[in-house]
Structure formats: structure tokens, C-alpha cells
Amino acid sequence: MATARASTRVPATAMFDALVVESIVETADTRTLVLDVGPHQPYRAGQYVSIDPHQFPALGSMTRYLEHLKGRVEPPRAYSMCSAPHEPYVAITVKEEVYDGVMAYPPLLSGFLVHSVRAGDRMAALGFAGGYVLPEVISADHILHLCAGSGSVPNVSMLKDALGRHPNLRHTFVYSNKTWDDVIFRDLLTQLAVEHPSRLQVIHTLTREPEQSSAAAGALRGRVTQEVLGAVLEREPNTLIYMCGPAISVWDRRAHALAGTTAPPRFLETMMIHLKSLEVPRDRIKMEAFG
């Protein structure tokens, strides 16, 4: 993973007894959980918290069953924060993972957090961690946020933070989803673009939206292309790129290895192919895989 000279210095992690203040519906399969974690050490935009499934009695049987199958203890799951450090609460956004027939085991925690956790519930959360953050000194005029699906979560945190703390820094948020209804933070991104018209451009690309749809007016149809990226980089040559989204998983690689085939590139691999063709230096790119 290339870094954009981001600082590796992060605060020590701590366990928080978090109260769920609000559960916000983002899309049909995605919720933002707003957490009151009490007094806490500062975190950096783009970081995550970890949640241990063992604390939830409703998951007890499934957790023990998966541990029996795997022969190991189920680890905590990491969820990026969409909140920015200046905001009063810590907020994580969770997209439900669904068993796809290729994974070796069904997902354990995300569906429970999306469909069962509500305001007033409590949970333990370990935070804060992660190096997918903007550098403390930004040697660029522009940040290209290149996201797909729930990969938008840490980038929204960085965007909100940077719009407040770095008044001379411009942003382009290129966001790929299947349909308009799948776009997480749709209203928030629109609001931020209206509030900062000279500093933020949002470009939506939709891969499965019907052509006759009027709801997604202004969005591009199809995948993020090299031409789209090239136009942004031509306009903003002094750019750092932060991209987050699906990548080839270990299960993909194993399944294709057994079949004697090669796993096709997913979002991050495809974007790297485009950026390499555009001759973007590797040290101007930082990646984080989701999904």
C-alpha cells in the first residue's frame, strides 16, 4: 500500500462503553450508528473502531458455531468512522455483508449492527486505529477521493475534517455505486458541495441505474473510467489520491486458484490500472480495501 507521506503517529487505543444515540438509515442495507463514547482521546479523520461480536448474546450461538468450524476465536470487526474529530459524537457507518456463495463462511456481525442495534443500546468499542488518514502537512492543492460503496465512509470523515481545517484545499469526490438508492451519504455530499462550491465537486457514477431514471440526473452511467480520472487530474495536477472500496479478497483468490483461473480486478485494482496508465506516481496514492 502506497502512502501519501501520512503520519504513522496515532493515539493509543482504549475500550469505550458506547451508548447508541441514534441509528440513521442511509440505504436499505446501511446504517450509521451515532455513539456517545464519553470523554476520549482525539482521533484522526479516516480511522476506525473495532467491535467484538462476543459481547452480543443474540450472536452467541452463531459465534460459537463459526469458532467450531474455523478452529479459532472470532476476532473483532473494524468499522470506519464517518464522523470528524470536531463533531460531538463518534459515528460509524455499517453496510450489511451478505453471504455470496464464494466466502468460506457467512458474515457474522454487520447484519446484526444494521438490522438489530437501535438507539438506547450499549456496546463496547475499541478505538481509535488506522493509518488511512491525511498527512499532517499536506503537500498538495487537491484531494481526489475515489470511492465505491461503503468505501466512502472514511473519506467522508476526511472530507468533513479537511473542509474545516484546510481552507485552501480543494476536493473532488468520485463515487461509484450500483444505483442511486445505493448511494450512502447522498444528501450530505450534496449539501457539502452546495456549501463549498469552489472547493468540492462530487461526481457520481452508477453501474446499474436504468437509463430512463430521472432520480439520478447528473450522475454518470457506468464504471469510473480512465477518462473521468484524467479530466480531474488535468484540472488539478497537484493532487493526492485517497481511494477506498472493494478489492480482490482472499476468498476470491482461493476460489479462482482452485478453478485454475485468475480473479478479475475489482474496484481498487481497476482504479490502479487507470492511474498507472495516467502515470500518477505511486507515492501520491493511498488505498484502503473494503468489502
Structure commentary:
- With 291 residues, the chain is of the alpha/beta class.
- The chain has two domains: 14-129, Beta Barrel (Elongation Factor Tu (Ef-tu), domain 3); 142-290, Nucleotide-binding domain of ferredoxin-NADP reductase (FNR) module (Rossmann fold, 3-Layer(aba) Sandwich).
- Helix content is 25%, strand content 28%.
- The protein has helices at 60-70, 110-115, 152-165, 186-195, 226-235, 250-259, 267-277; strands at residues 14-27, 30-36, 48-51, 77-80, 90-95, 122-129, 142-148, 170-177, 200-206, 220-221, 239-246, 285-290.
- The strands form two sheets. Strands 4-3-6-1-2-5 form a six-stranded antiparallel beta sheet.
- Helix 4 (186-195) links the parallel strand 8 and strand 9.
- The longest helix has 14 residues, at 152-165.
- The model is unreliable at 1-11 (pLDDT under 50).
